[in-house]
UniProtKB/TrEMBL annotation:
GO terms for biological process: cell adhesion involved in heart morphogenesis; larval heart development. This is Uncharacterized protein. GO terms for cellular component: extracellular matrix. It comes from Zophobas morio. The lineage of its organism: Eukaryota, Metazoa, Ecdysozoa, Arthropoda, Hexapoda. It comes from the Eukaryota.
């Protein structure tokens, strides 16, 4: 048991964890006031305490023991109850369980649209650009132990050099809800799809039109 928990701990220590399975520890308990004689069980209790795991299964078997553990260190609501209609014949030592976990996912981050301005590299002063890049003393990055901070400082310098050597122009997509890589054909097909989709009469030609334009977008 010690080698098992020792191998798992570094992999799970900084993560949200769900552990569900038969660990065959009949005297397992996370009650700090309860004395545990079994060394293997004590080792696993220490492992659970280190990862801040909570045991959710309270369904006992015929011997009034709990062999199947449902452990987690998340704040998600988890419920466990005895399944009355198991798919296979029930093992009396391992009652069939119904486990429900309610996971809340953060709202998805919308794909960013193109910015209003962009670099016009066709009119860039490449002699100045290359010269400025060659003359940068990058040793200042050594002062940052955090790679994310160093990367941010690196890009600050790069963009400053670009601003001095590459003119900016208004984005041709300014005011457009479509990403910059959408050409006129794709935009036209998408607009037709939306018009067909929002029609209320629901006749067959509209449905056919939606399918045809969906195929065109895929192409």
């Amino acid at each position: 048991m010690f080698s098992f928990t020792e191998a798992l701990t570094p992999m799970l220590l900084e993560h949200s964890v769900f552990i569900k399975g038969d660990l065959t520890l009949p005297h397992f308990s996370l009650d700090s006031d309860r004395h545990i004689a079994c060394a293997k069980t004590r080792c696993f209790v220490d492992f659970c305490n280190l990862l801040n795991l909570t045991q959710f299964n309270g369904v006992v078997n015929r011997n009034n023991n709990i062999l199947d553990l449902v452990l987690s260190n998340t704040e998600f609501e988890t419920t466990v109850h005895h399944e009355q209609f198991p798919l296979v014949r029930e093992d009396l030592h391992h009652p069939a369980l119904s486990i429900n976990t309610f996971i809340e996912f953060p709202d998805p981050i919308p794909f960013p649209f193109a910015t209003n301005v962009r670099y016009n590299f066709r009119k860039a002063d490449y002699v100045k650009l290359y010269s400025d890049l060659l003359n940068v003393d990058w040793s200042f990055l050594d002062a940052h132990n955090d790679v994310n901070v160093a990367l941010e400082k690196f890009y600050d310098v790069v963009y400053q050099i670009l601003d001095h050597s590459v003119p900016k122009v208004g984005n041709r997509n300014e005011g457009n809800k479509f990403p910059i890589w959408c050409n006129k054909k794709i935009i036209g097909v998408q607009n037709i799809k939306m018009k067909l989709y929002y029609r209320k009469n629901g006749n067959a030609p509209d449905a056919i039109g939606i399918m045809q334009n969906s195929t065109a977008c895929d192409d």
